[in-house]
Amino acid sequence: MAPYASDDNTTAGETDDLPAGRRKAARYVVPVAVMGVAAATIGLVPALADSGDPDLPKITAEQLIDKIAKSDVQQLSGTVKITTDLGLPDLGGLESGLMSGAARHGADGGSSADPSAKLTELASGTHTLRVAADGPDRQKLSLLENAAEYSLIHNGKDVWGYDSASNEVYHGTAADHGAHGRQQPPATPKDFAEEALKAVDPTTSVTVDGTAQVAGRDAYNLVVKPRQSGSTVGAISVAVDAKTGLPLKFTLTPASGGAAVVDAGFTQVSFAKPAASTFDFTPPKGAKVTEDRELEHAGKAPERAPEHEGDRHAGGVPEGFSGLNTIGEGWTTIATFDTDGEGLPTAGGGAGGDLGGFLDSLGDKVSGKFGSGTVFSTRLVNALITEDGKVYVGAVTKDALVKAADAAK
User: Fold this and answer.
1) Alpha carbon of 407 to those of 206, 374, 386, 402: distances in Å?
2) Measured in Å, how far apart are the chain's first and last C-alpha atoms?
3) Residue 144 bridge partners (DSSP)
4) Taking CA atoms, which of 93, 165, 205, 218 is between 20 and 30 Å from 110?
5) Helix H segments across 129-281?
6) β-strand 168-173 against 288-291: which pairing, if any?
7) Run of H or E including 40
8) Cβ burial, residue 92 (10 Å; 0-12/13-18/19+)
9) Which one, of 61, 32, 31, lies nearest residue 391 by Cα?
10) What confidence category does residue 250 fall into, taking pLDDT thresholds of 50, 70 and 90?
């Protein structure tokens, strides 16, 4: 494989020989599976980099990617600030109500401490997290809220979630999480960067763009950009710790410009071994404790998404939807599936008509060879729903969705 040029003018072919695990689609950093969250919500805090760029040895993009891949930080603690902003229309607080309602779903037999519900709050707004890790069997993440705190603790075989606002506790095991296919949303710069680097393929430009200081640490800036037109992704920037290779800051900016869609970065970090007591947890007196198995039996535990061999974009399709396929490649990949012939409610009379009118107000009417439909737009993920119930969704422009629908006819 030809090395990356020292001036970082990376060519598409130079990235093509990277391991397959790094070439999967970061265009699904916000995947189809979370479109439900995106449709209800996903800004960026001011840049977390300190003033003054450090003078570091030159490094190529390939070397920096390898540095990230080889990073083996086992022990750390710190504070992360994460902000997400899809630029959704103002729904008068409805979206925040939906998110908090999901987190408080204990009223219908679940638990507000269930991480699969609570951590969806990270998909909207600005949040401060405290994180700690001591090897693969001990991690802790605390979501700081107004006068409350939510903590997710993995200590050996036990996984605990505690919501101080409701005094509810979730308890499961690492084995339970694996068996149920539970996946938590990205929360740290490393989580986001791992997804982003899967996009390194011939449709991607990768460069090193100077240096920065993040949380008092010297870092290199790795920039990942789509080469294709039609993507809503402008650029992904990852600040990589010069010493350890750990991603310290992740920023995804949209092609339309303005504030970032996702920004997650350490404001403070230490690589010292956290105290063992950091990962201790005993349910407080009077707390309601819900076992993971109880959620499973109550039908609350999420099912494992089906896997389709050879389909790198495969994922679960909600009940009533079928035929998940993809169109195109690289950053302009579009997922398409059917709503089993049911399009959006029309703006006619009755309750369905009222809903149709409301939905119409949030989207843009479009037409083409495919017929007509409505495009629901965010700053990153857009979706076209045709009147005959076909859905086209991806991190692409509205025009790209219409072209894909026309080509399918």
Assistant:
1) 31, 17, 14, 9
2) 41
3) 128, 149
4) 93
5) 174-180, 189-196
6) parallel
7) helix 35-40
8) exposed
9) 32
10) very high
For residue 66, the model assigns a pLDDT of 94
| Cβ 222 vs Cβ 65: under 8 Å | yes
In Å, how far from its chain's centre is CA 222?
Answer: 19
- Strand, helix or coil at 138? strand
Q: Could you give the 3-state DSSP secondary structure of residue 179?
A: helix
List, in sequence order, every residue forming a beta bridge with 172; answer none if it has no partner. 159
Domains, the chain, ordered by start = 12-297 (2.50.20.10), 322-408 (3.30.310)
DSSP state of 171: E
- Strands, sheet with 390-394, edge to edge from the N-terminal-most edge strand: 322-327, 334-338, 390-394, 382-386, 371-377, 364-368
d(CA 358, CA 351) in angstroms, rounded, equals: 11
Q: Which one-letter amino acid corresponds to residue 18?
A: L
Q: How many beta carbons lie within 10 A of that of residue 174, not counting itself?
A: 15
CA distances from 223 to 61, 197, 232, 234, 247 (A): 9, 10, 16, 10, 12
What is the residue type of 91? L
Query: How are the residues of the chain apportioned to helix, strand and coil, as percentages rounded to the nearest 5?
Result: 25, 35, 40
pLDDT digits (tens, 9 = 90+) for 335-394: 999 886 555 555 444 444 454 554 566 789 999 999 999 999 888 999 999 998 899 999
Share of the chain above pLDDT 90, in %: 51
Q: Which residue has the tokens 């990768």?
A: 206
pTM: 0.75
- Band (pLDDT 50/70/90 cuts) for residue 38 is very low
